[in-house]
Amino acid sequence: MVGWMVGLSVMAVSLTATEAEPLPSPPPAPYCEGEYADSYAALSPKARAFEQATQKKYTYCVRSTAVYECLSYGAEGNVRRTRTPVSAHGTAFAYKQQAGETLLLTNEHVVEWPDVTSDAHPVDGVPSGCKRVKDGLSIVENEADHYDRDDVPLSKAVVDPQLDLAVIKSKAPLTVMPWKVGKSAAVRERDVVDVRGFPLGVFNATNMGKVISAYDRDEYKEWYHDDFVIDALLSQGNSGSPVLAISCKTGEFELVGVYHAGYSRGSALNVVVGIDQARDLMTNLRRTPKRPQEGTTPLDALARARVAKRAEVSATPFFPFGSRTAAVFPRADGTLLFALYEQDFPRRVHPLIVMEDLPVASTDEGFGKVGRVWFGGERGLLERPRAEQDAELQQQLARLLDAMRRDATLAFSYQDSLPGSDESRQTFDTSARLGKTLERTIVAHRDLSDTAAELADRFAPDATEPATRTESVLKNPPPPGIHLGLTGEPAGQTRQPAKSAQGKEARTPAGR
Fold first, then answer.
1. C-alpha angle 361/363/367, rounded to 5°?
2. Which regions in the chain score pLDDT beneath 50?
3. How many Cβ atoms from other residues are within 10 Å of residue 121's Cβ?
């Protein structure tokens, strides 16, 4: 009773004060200094009512499935094939109806699976080295939806790994987002954002937050685009969610980005692909041109001269190639010898492969041309003449040599750019960029270096074949058709062609 009495007393005083002095008018709507609002109070009643209508959802839960085939050997040596199905869930939103189809936007990593699993491209629950043999996309209610008769099948229209975006399409008519595409360049810190998606694939949810950084350059792995950072509490499954901001002019939502990733060691540090970069993808279904490899130069005569000079004056002409170490050795006649070593180099120093890179007569012909190839093991090296190489092996060796040329050029450029006593901000930034490019190249060429090891395992000299000393090849290579080996064969004698590669047991190279 005392509480009521006090409340009534306060009310009486308030009424008296109201009669004496009028209360101040309510504050005006939030002031928008830029393109987008910093408060949800700027949202128009019409836009608020539409978003609260449960029957008009334009975001969808996407189920991405794949089947991987893995090869193994049984106790009797027979090949076993096992298939492992996998699935993941993300978010997509419909933005346009065109030619009887509905177009949706989502992340590339939501709809794509690696062709072959590896350390660089892992898939949960699938061993490394398994091949994707089937995949599919569909719209489901949520991750627990196992009734597939009402699922909406989807297909890919265009994917852009650099933007981590993909346009997918449905033949079924879907509710399309009514909001216009905004300008991510106009997003400012403290602007309020609204994110619609399916966290963990469990249910449709709305997350709210603010822009905490208007710019973040994303160069992680294959990504190459501009982001902005928001503090909305997002989860896996939110990938592909539309990020909306409130226009100060209309009070309506505008699409300013697509959520695609978060900092793993941060709390609510989520990055959004700015929508300005996606306009061509959305309207013309055309991906952005592939980014140039920073720090790389064309494989021409000038690049060859740089590599040759660097290898000549350096006591350590080594460079990383995938998970292994490679080296390049110059020869007096202008030939370059590229050698690839085992993973435990320098504990074991015999090369797996040595390839001649012969100079060309004209600068217009490029870096060089493939010469002789030696495959090696602990016994030494053995040349495999081109006549013994089938078309597939020749293509593999050409790709291998081209990749080692590029990696040597990049690695030497990075080594030369390392800051010294006269370090400046520009040299530091250049070195940092080259270092990131080199790291990406190392990861990208792991499969190729594994393939080279498989080739060496197939074609290295066995107990019945003559082997050549490594020093003889790297320091003073024998002329074509001449063998300088360990078997007491007279120098200068023309050897018989080595056993055909087809005569040895074939092993499928690992990797894609």
1. 90
2. 1-20, 26-28, 482-512
3. 16
